[in-house]
Amino acid sequence: MITSIERKLAFLNVSVVVAIIALIGVGTWILLARSLDREADTSLEIRIQSTRATLTNLPSMTPRQSGQNAGQGQDGNQKAKANVSDVDTEDLQEQQEESDEERDEESRDIVTSGDTLVFVFDANANLVTNRRNIVLNRIPDVDGVHAALDGDSDTRFVTIDGERLRVRTEPVYYDGEVVGAIQAARSEAEHDDELVLVRTMTLIGTGIGVLVAVPAGIYLTRRAMTPINDVLHRQRSFVSDAAHELRTPLTVLRANAEVLTRTPDLTRQALDQQLRAMMGDVDDMSHLVDELLQLSRVDTPDYAVEVGEMSLKPEIDRAITMLGPQAAQGGVALKVSGEDLQVRSNPDMVGQVVRIVLENAIKYTPTGGSVQVSTQRHGDKAVIEIRDTGIGIQPADLPYVFDRFYRADKARTRSNGTGLGLSIARGLVTLLDGTITLESTPEQGTTVRVTLPIA
Question: Is 5 within a domain?
Fold first, then answer.
């Protein structure tokens, strides 16, 4: 099941992916549009310059007689007049309309072909040169011609039957005066097709990005949330277990207090017994609170640890001396072996780790058993090994022995500990740049190895 946080993270991931694809597509479209505009303007500018170089009739800008006009002389005019006299007026009008339609159709075909059209105008905006014989409503563009005759270079767009044309008009100078204008026009169909292609690909890419980003976002979100969920689960379990551990002594403490209030005629011996029990409960809670506070400090990322060169033997001997009476009371023999090693660590923390592990070993070793503490060097590491002949730990419990408040069932029957000792030991060893591992065989014993860096 997808939680609310996972859903929000997945939506955020999809939004980021789609935004990136959209931004790349829009950026590509803008850059391509500008590039095509520069290319089109350059092409029209080159064509205008080449046309300006061919003008030989400046400053009059009068057109040279075309071959078609040269072929028509007086004889042609006389023949035309003779034909007019022979043809009915209505037929002439129909022929003229058909001719205009054919000419318009041919002009549209030329315009949409992508060819560059060039027109030359004189100083009075009269069309001087129209080599392709283009005659359409908005081509040539009169407004652009007037702007050029005023001395400005003009670029604009004209739409004819849905076809967009780029029109550029520039003035023609002679002795510093404007004597005419040259206009070049070309269809923008190819230009627009490329932009449409980029826009379409951007939309398709965005759609594909959504289709891919949704499952990928959910998958990545779940993977990212797994350790977070584990931490939250462990935190909830920690709070629940801490509350449970505190509830038990508090319940007993309240019960003892109620006994005292309800039986005011208790003997001195019974009263002392109840008070000692209550003090024991208070001590248990105080010990638990101290361990919780230490765990919170160990878990603090910026917890400062002072390390330096130290000897292992004094700390091990101090732990043996402190826990010797407990071992003797339980009939457990303590043995120490190995060399004294110099490590780079913190004496107080090392001593506490040894005491925690040693106390557990003594607690879970039956009468007549033994606990062996040894030190040895492996490369650049010093290894403290604590081996007991106790009840051991079941394989199913081994992965959880360092978890907070975790106690195997057998351990629960033998001790009223809090289950925080090994968690604290692991936290302390981690702060000391060391490692702690545990191996155990049921009914044969447990071995704990603590490694620390050699000084």
Answer: no
